[in-house]
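ASSEMBLY PREDICTION REQUEST
Request ID: AP-0331
Submitted by: J.K., bench scientist
Number of chains: three
Total residues: 694
Priority: normal
Notes: Please return the full assembly, not individual chains.
Input sequences:
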Amino acid sequence: MIEARKISKRFGLKRVLHDLDFKVPDGGCVALLGPNGSGKTTLLRILASLTKVDEGEVWIDGYRLSDQAALARGRVGFVSHQPLLYGDLTAKENLQFYGRMYGISDIQQRTAQVLELVGLYPRQADLVRTFSRGMGQRLAIARAILHQPQVLLFDEPHTGLDPDSVSMLDNILLDMSRQGHTLVISSHDPVHVADLVSRFDVLSEGELITSKGVEEIGVEHALAFYRDAVMGKGERRG
Amino acid sequence: MENKHRLLSILNVITVVLFLVSTWLVFAYAPLERTMGPVQKVFYFHVSTAWVGMLGFFVSAIMGVMYLLKGKRIWDTVGVSSIEISFVFFLIAIISGSIWARPIWNTWWTWDPRLTTAAVVELIYGAYFLLRQGVDEPQKRARFSAVYAIIGFFSVPLTFISIRFLRTIHPVVIGGGDPSVVGGFNMTGPMKFTFFFSLFTFSVLFADLLWHRSRLGRLASELEDLRLALTS
Amino acid sequence: MRDYLRVLWAIVWKDLAVEFRSRELITAMLVFSLLVILIFNFALELEVQTRESVTAGVLWVTFTFAGTLGLNRSMASEKDRGCLDGLLLAPVDRSAMYFGKAVSNLTFMLVVEAIVLPVTSVLFNVNLFHLGFLGVVLLGSIGYIAVGTLLATMTVQIRTRDILLPILLFPLTVPVLIAAVKASNGFLLGYPRDMIVAWINLIIVYDVIFTAIAFMTFDYVVEE
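STATUS: Completed
Returned structure:
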């Protein structure tokens, strides 16, 4: 379960998030949509406890980030823009490292398991330096789910992936959702994610302008809904 | 645009008055020292400026701690103001020390503890300014400055002690027992009074300058905010 | 506590594994150090008598400069692929990351020193194998790395990272440098016992104070 109450964040003078309320129930699956600079990445980084809020409070699975961040981090898996992998180590070694960081008990078994899941088992002994973007992203996902976190955060995970990797990622996402994990996926592409999530949350200029169930919108209307939401914000201002 | 706080104006006046009195004390009241003559009078200003230098560093270290704990921009502004003032005062201390040293020890510079420590502190300040210059984002800049000011401050006593263990020719006027050290002297009553009055005057001067500079800093930040708000 | 140590050792193991594969860091530090020693040899035109008295100084200057190379590379390898974030995701107190990196950095520095010392011993014809001397090298390196790791974590996030680290670090390492050289000379040239002890105490005090400060302020250096 994720709950963010009245959070604000500014970098220098730029106010990136403004008085934001964001809530995802246990097992919920939400797409975070919005134009560039709307604050999607910052929100995800805050939930992953990589960035601190200036105001407001965040709870992840009951842990409050302002004083229990370390505990909360154990419940979160984060896939960001960058791979967070060491090029000079093999895929397996990278996972072993993260396994140790998270204190996983059966590292060997679990590593093999996730490698299999993302289709990288045959490449486990290869240096990550030699991986393509798609493979790197897949390994990054393996890294994120290694410690079986309840909450999974994905920052535009489909960007730059080949079609095979895209469908593999989608399968993993659907699987995770089915298993009851809480997912937040940020994306530029409302049509694509409409099949994966149950709710659209649209951010613009640091504010949550609308939040609606996908069923209510209808998958066919996803793009129109998104456009209207962003435009509407623009009109309301101008 | 806010007006100068009335207290600040009063402080300005007090500072000027104290300075005038102090100068009179130094030149008219304090007696001429036996061996060194008029040059010795530099001592009153020299030690006071060095004292202010250390005070400034201490203040900025406190400001650093406050900023890390509280996060308000004003702590950072006062911190950098303090270091700027301290930088100038240490420079004056080093130069005035040189002026005093030349006729006494026949050299412009020596590698003695106090002087060398002052030089190292100036380098720490230089590094501090370069650090600030390299960070664009204000919060990050403030955080890094705060941490560096704290570490820097704690390094000073250790630096001083380590150099002190080496040979020294710097006159140890306060608490020093050996008057045969060239340039050392014992202070008579009027001298002591003049000395402590100088210290007090310079402390007030520091507070006055700090207030002015911090105020300038705050106004500059507000101006920056306004400018950014207009152009975005 | 167990988690904390586990994360710490995971980071150390990871750094050693990466370095074992690429050997970039140690090679750079080593080559640089040997070059500096050579340059000192030519620049100072040392006669046999004076050599002993300057060896400690030459060594510490070398270590100070080579150390920044290692520190820079060590932190840059984290920053460049976003791995710094990876470390920050660990479910433990952030200071574990500081100690992990500090231990790795110290290990690399000690490895380089372990090679440079015998080489210098031969080139300068000075016997450097006193236990006391080696102890000083260890203690001094600890202090240097304690401050250096904290500052390197800062500078790696700044544009001017390469030139800024030495500028920030060197003034703060003056006490260690002086004490280490004095204590080293103490052992090599046979100074009185209690004098050497005084210098060693200074190094230890430095190590303790700065490790404590680094531990307390590290969070503020990595947070966003």
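REVIEWER COMMENTS: The radius of gyration of chain A is 18 Å.
SIGN-OFF: pending second reviewer
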